[in-house]
Design goal:
Helices cover 38% and strands 18% of the residues. The protein is an alpha/beta fold. Among the domains are: 190-324, no CATH class; 423-565. A six-stranded antiparallel β-sheet has the order 11-12-16-15-14-13. A four-stranded mixed β-sheet has the order 2-1-5-4. A hairpin with a 2-residue loop joins strand 9 (329-330) and strand 10 (333-334). It is globular, with a radius of gyration of 25 Å. 44% of the residues are buried.
Length: 567
């Protein structure tokens, strides 16, 4: 079921392998000088973008060292930069960048205020981003010779969902990097990059696997393991269709694909009745699984935080492949390079960004200088701040990491979770503000003049995972009937889709199930707030109701309305 080794792969391998080994060795040596490299990198970042509008507003040209930076720039988040990014989207590159730089795209991701974040991506940023991926692959190639000469399966997302007024594409950074590999490296990829533009998710998954099913896929790369599980199950339901396509050398007409794109994807497809018969014999009552048509050696995806919960199901569908984390990675940049299989631990990527760390328990009260990479304690948890080549300084990622070791002077970190006010089961990065926005929209649909306030959202582990909205039984008109509860649940779920683009994506692809509603005994949430207020050391006027719980099933002990228990 595996095609012969391609000639261009044989030609490419010596060049690619030597380059990857060189990168791996160089990375390991540079970690011995992490403190010095980070200091020099900060100097360079200030020179690079210090004369931007943001830089001039904060006097970055007068910054000579880290302490100077702290005095001029406090801890920032995306809202600090949104006005500057909006100016860049209109064509003012100097808003955040130095005189010689310009964005080639904006990477889209969800924001805490409901508006999507547009992260400026420059050529330099892309170079660093790709270098991080090359480093990751270099360690895989170095330690897993079974990958040599075999194919890579990777399905990216479009880089151009839409364009700014200045004509700059906005989309997924994976779509941009997928277009950039050298043609020799590209020969290792089993799925044409154009498959990204199949709009229907099920059809995109099907087409990708249909094309790659006849190839010797040794490495699968994606961010979320939930994507791989969703893809496998989607194609599993179309097993007969897949067998027929392999037999006939076709791509199902049921797939809604534009004619020109279909022609491009079908160029190399040929009838393969021998493979179709072999796979038919393997097909069980559940249909075809990835382990039936591939013998995958490595699956590279996130393993940290809640992503580890997907591992048993991943192994069941894809077989006994070794798992390797892809690192702490976001639209804002790469932060770690994992060097160990079956672990979310990664070495800080010291060449990509300048890093600061704040003890997790002190994030709300911290001011002044933070801790630098060489000053951290093993076993402690920290929030991580970035200063980046695309003009962000002291940027709070809201990511909590634990320091588990050191490699030279560089800390080895493991991602734990998003910040205290952000929940992310499969990468949706849902914020408390998103919940407030959604409740406001849903309350209007229910005919409420004022927003339903006695409610708390909590993530739940299931297949697929979902969010449960716990609401006081008396908080909203209509909750006394199952029809009213269903109406509010659907309205709230739709509102979350509207206010958070990552939630929208995960719901569309089936990685998250619809939000569910549960009514609680009247007065319970208000009573909880009164107890918290009594224990609070801040003024009563500063107390805020907690709309979002970030720990899975943290609502398990909430008292459910008696009649709901019996239903």
């Amino acid at each position: 079921m595996n095609t012969p080794i391609q000639l261009n792969n044989l030609c490419a391998y010596p060049y690619i392998n030597l380059h990857l080994i060189h990168l791996a060795n160089r990375f390991k040596k540079r970690n011995k000088r992490a403190e010095q490299i980070q200091s020099r990198l900060l100097d360079w970042l200030i020179k690079l973008n210090g004369n931007s509008d943001f830089g001039q507003a904060h006097g970055l040209a007068r910054v000579r060292n880290y302490k100077d930076l702290v005095q001029r720039v406090g801890i920032t988040d995306y809202e600090t930069y949104r006005p500057y990014v909006e100016q860049m989207a209109d064509g003012n590159n100097r808003a955040l960048l130095g005189s010689d730089a310009k964005p080639v795209m904006f990477a889209l991701t969800s924001g805490t205020t409901g508006k999507p974040k547009q992260i400026p991506v420059t050529k330099l940023f892309l170079r660093n981003y790709r270098r991080g991926w090359f480093l990751l692959v270099s360690w895989l190639w170095r330690n897993h010779k079974e990958l040599w000469y075999r194919q890579v399966f990777q399905l990216s997302s479009p880089l151009d969902d839409y364009f700014t007024t200045a004509g700059i594409p906005c989309g997924a950074i994976s779509g941009m990097t997928a277009k950039m590999p050298h043609w020799l490296a590209r020969s290792y990829y089993s799925v044409p990059q154009d498959a990204t533009y199949i709009k229907d998710t099920s059809d995109r998954y099907y087409a990708a696997i249909r094309i790659a099913a006849e190839q010797d896929v040794g490495l699968i790369v994606t961010a979320s393991p939930a994507t791989l599980i969703g893809m496998a199950k989607s194609v599993q339901q179309r097993s007969e269709e897949l067998l027929r396509d392999i037999h006939d050398g076709s791509l199902s007409e049921k797939c809604q694909i534009p004619a020109e794109l279909r022609q491009n994807l079908c160029r190399k497809l040929k009838p393969n009745p021998k493979l179709a018969k072999k796979l038919e014999q393997k097909t069980g009552s559940e249909g075809l699984l990835p382990r039936d048509y591939w013998r995958v050696s490595i699956i590279a995806c996130w393993l940290g935080g809640t992503m580890g919960l997907y591992i048993p199901q991943l192994r069941e569908l894809y077989g006994k492949a070794t798992l390797h984390d892809i690192g702490l990675l976001a639209s804002e940049g790469r932060m770690s390079i994992p060097l160990i299989d079956e672990s979310p631990q990664g070495v800080l990527d010291i060449d990509n960004n300048f890093y600061e760390f704040i003890p997790a328990e002190e994030i709300d009260n911290w001011s002044g200088p933070a801790l630098l990479g060489h000053e951290l304690q093993i076993g402690q948890k920290y929030f991580i701040l970035l200063s980046t080549p695309n003009g962000f300084f002291r940027y709070n990622m809201s990511d909590v990491v634990e320091v588990v070791d050191y490699l030279g002077e560089a800390p080895v970190i493991s991602f734990l979770n998003k910040g205290t006010h952000i929940s992310s089961i499969v990468g949706e990065k849902l914020s408390a503000y998103n919940v407030v926005q959604a409740m406001a929209k849903a309350s209007k649909i229910m005919g409420q003049e004022n927003q339903c306030c006695d409610a708390v959202l909590c993530p739940q582990w299931s297949e697929p995972p979902f969010y449960r909205l716990n609401i006081d039984a008396k908080a909203c008109a209509g909750l006394e009937t199952s029809e009213g509860q269903k109406k509010l649940a659907e309205a709230f779920d739709q509102a979350l889709i509207e206010v958070n683009i990552e939630y929208k994506s995960k719901r569309k692809t089936g990685r998250l199930g619809p939000a569910q509603l549960r009514t609680l005994e009247p007065g319970y949430l208000a009573q909880c707030d009164r107890k918290k207020m009594a224990r609070s050391v801040t003024a009563r006027s500063q107390f805020k109701h907690q709309y979002l719980l970030t720990e899975l099933a943290a609502d398990k002990d909430f008292p459910v309305l008696e009649k709901e228990k019996n239903s």
